[in-house]
Design goal:
450 residues, alpha/beta, 11-stranded mixed sheet, 14 helices, 20 strands, binds NADP nicotinamide-adenine-dinucleotide phosphate
Length: 450
C-alpha cells in the first residue's frame, strides 16, 4: 500500500493499470484531480458533475469514477506549508493512478521574488527582499517565494513529453473567421525540451559570464557581454517519442496526415533536426502505414493511397498562414515546444478562443488532462467563467479511458447548450440574444442536455 504524507486515498475504487503495454481500466477507476488556483475551483465544481453524469448516463450506473483530491499551488501550500507548492504526495498519486485531471495553476513570470497564490500578484518583498506578510494587492497571507512553473515541473517530473491539444469549432461559437468548421486539428507539442527545458542564465551573474566566455573564446561565437542566455536542446529521443505518439494517434484514429512543424531553415541542428528525425521515425517504424509528401508526388502522382497517413512538414511561420488559409489540409501537427505553444493558442483563437480548448499532457502511459487557459485571478470565486476547457479535457480523458460513449455525450451536450445560446459571459458578450449563465449554471445546462 502506498504511503502518503497527508493524503488518504479513497477506500472504494480500483487503480488503472498497464497490462501488456495497454491501459487496463476498471469500471470504478480512482482518478486524482487538482482543482487548481484562481478560477480552478469554480471550473472544477462545474466540471465534476458533468463528467459523473455522462458516465452514469452512458453506462447505466455500471461505471463510475472515484475521485481522489490531490494538491498543487495554493491548496498544497495551505495543506503542506513551508512553500511546498508541489508536494511529493501529488506526484506519487499521479504516478500510481496513471490518469489525472487538473485546473490551472499560477505561474510566476520572473524578475521579482514572491508570488501571491491567491491572486497571482508578483512582488519584490520588503526593503531587504524579505517575504511580505501579506500580498500587496489582495492582502492574502498566501505569498510564497517565486518557484518554477508548476506546469513545467509536473511535465518534467512525470516525464509527460507530449502536450496534446485538439482544436475544433463548436457550432454557434462566435469566432473571427468565415469558415471555422474547416479547422479540426490535434497539436502534439513536445513538452520537455527546447527553450522550455528551462536552461537559462540570468544576465550579470557569474554563471552567465562563464557561459558567454566559453562560447566566445572557445566556440568562436560573438555574444554581447550584457546578455542573458537560454539553451535550446532538441534530442533524437525527445523528437522520436513525440512523433511516434502523433503517428500512432493518426493511425488509430484514421487521420489523413501528420505535419512536422519546425523552423529548420534557420535553426538547422535543433528545429531542422526535429524534421529529419521525424521523417526518420516515420519511415523506419511505420513504413507500411505512411507515405511522405515527397513520395506522394514521386511515386503516386499526387494521389494518396487508401488507408495510409501522409507525413509532411511545414516551416513554423508558414503553418500560421496555412491554418488560416487552407485549414482543412491539416489533421495532426507535431511540433517542438515553443512553436507548439504559439500555434495552439493561435488555432484556439481562430475557432473562438481558449475557453473552449481542451488539453492533455501525456507520457508513455500517464495522462494528465488540463484546462488550457490560466487562473484568470480577477474572476476567482465569482462563479463566472467558462468551464468548457476543463469539461472538454475531461471528455478527452474519458476517450483515453476508452469510454467514448460518455465523451461523445459531453461534446454533443456542450454543442447543444451553446446552440441554445445559454452561455457564460465570455460567449454571451459576443452573441446576440444569448442568456448569460454562471459557471455552475452552464455545467447544469450541459447535464440537462445530455
Ligand atoms: P488567463 O488566466 O488565461 O486569463 C486571461 C484572460 O482570458 C482572462 O482575463 C479572461 O478574459 C480569459 N479567460 C481565461 N480563462 C477563461 C475562462 N475559463 N472563461 C472565460 N474567459 C477566460 O491568463 P493570464 O491572466 O495571463 O494568467 C493568469 C495566471 O495563470 C498566471 O499566473 C499564468 O502564468 C497562469 N497560467 C496557467 C496555465 C496553466 O495552469 N495551464 C496556463 C496559462 C496561464 P477576459 O478578461 O477578457 O474576460
Amino acid at each position: 500500500m502506498t504511503q502518503y504524507e497527508k493524503l488518504t486515498p479513497p477506500s472504494e475504487g480500483e487503480k488503472i493499470r498497464i497490462e501488456n503495454g495497454e491501459l487496463n481500466v476498471p469500471d470504478n477507476p480512482i482518478i486524482p484531480f487538482i482543482a487548481g488556483d484562481g478560477i480552478g475551483p469554480d471550473i472544477w465544481r462545474a466540471t465534476k458533475p458533468v463528467l459523473d453524469s455522462a458516465v452514469e448516463k452512458a453506462y447505466g450506473g455500471k461505471k463510475k469514477i472515484v475521485w481522489f483530491q490531490v494538491h498543487a499551488g495554493l491548496s498544497a501550500l495551505k495543506l503542506y506549508g513551508n512553500d511546498r507548492v508541489l508536494p511529493e504526495d501529488t506526484l506519487t498519486a499521479i504516478r500510481e493512478h496513471l490518469v489525472a485531471i487538473k485546473g490551472p495553476l499560477t505561474t510566476p513570470v520572473g524578475g521579482f521574488k514572491y508570488v501571491c497564490l491567491a491572486c497571482a500578484a508578483e512582488q519584490d518583498g520588503g526593503p531587504n527582499g524579505e517575504r511580505p506578510e501579506k500580498c500587496v494587492k489582495c492582502g492574502s497571507p498566501w505569498v510564497t517565494p517565486r518557484f518554477r512553473s508548476l506546469n513545467v515541473q509536473l511535465r518534467q517530473k512525470l516525464d509527460l513529453y507530449a502536450c496534446i491539444r485538439p482544436v475544433r469549432w463548436f457550432k454557434g461559437v462566435p469566432c473571427p473567421v468565415k469558415h471555422p468548421e474547416k479547422l479540426n486539428v490535434i497539436i502534439f507539442r513536445e513538452n520537455t525540451e527546447d527553450v522550455y527545458a528551462g536552461i537559462e542564465f540570468e544576465q550579470g551573474t557569474p554563471e552567465v559570464n562563464q557561459v558567454i566566455k566559453f562560447l566566445n573564446s572557445e566556440m568562436g561565437k560573438n555574444i554581447r557581454e550584457d546578455s542573458g542566455v537560454g539553451i535550446k536542446p532538441i534530442s533524437i529521443t525527445g523528437t522520436k517519442r513525440l512523433v511516434r505518439k502523433a503517428i500512432d494517434y493518426a493511425i488509430s484514429h484514421h487521420k489523413a496526415s501528420v505535419t512536422l512543424v519546425h523552423k529548420g531553415n534557420i535553426m538547422k541542428f535543433t528545429e531542422g533536426a526535429f524534421r529529419d528525425w521525424g521523417y526518420e521515425v516515420a519511415k523506419e517504424e511505420y513504413r507500411e502505414q505512411i507515405v511522405t509528401e515527397k513520395e506522394l508526388w514521386e511515386k503516386y502522382d499526387g494521389k494518396m493511397p487508401e488507408g495510409k497517413v501522409l507525413i509532411k512538414d511545414r516551416i513554423a511561420d508558414q503553418i500560421f498562414q496555412q491554418v488560416l488559409l487552407r485549414p482543412d489540409e491539416y489533421d495532426i501537427l507535431a511540433t517542438p515546444n515553443l512553436n507548439g505553444d504559439y500555434l495552439s493558442d493561435a488555432c484556439a483563437a481562430q475557432v473562438g478562443g481558449l475557453g473552449l480548448a481542451p488539453g492533455a499532457n501525456m507520457g508513455d502511459h500517464i495522462g494528465l488532462f488540463e484546462a488550457t487557459h490560466g487562473t484568470a485571478p480577477k474572476y476567482t470565486g465569482m462563479d463566472k467563467v467558462n468551464p468548457s476547457s476543463l469539461i472538454l479535457s475531461g471528455a478527452l480523458m474519458l476517450e483515453y479511458l476508452g469510454w467514448n460513449e460518455a465523451a461523445e455525450m459531453i461534446v454533443h451536450a456542450i454543442e447543444k447548450t451553446i446552440q441554445q445560446k445559454r452561455v457564460t459571459y465570455d460567449l454571451e458578450r459576443q452573441m446576440e440574444g444569448a442568456t448569460k449563465l454562471k459557471c455552475s449554471e452552464f455545467g447544469k445546462a450541459i447535464v440537462e442536455n445530455m
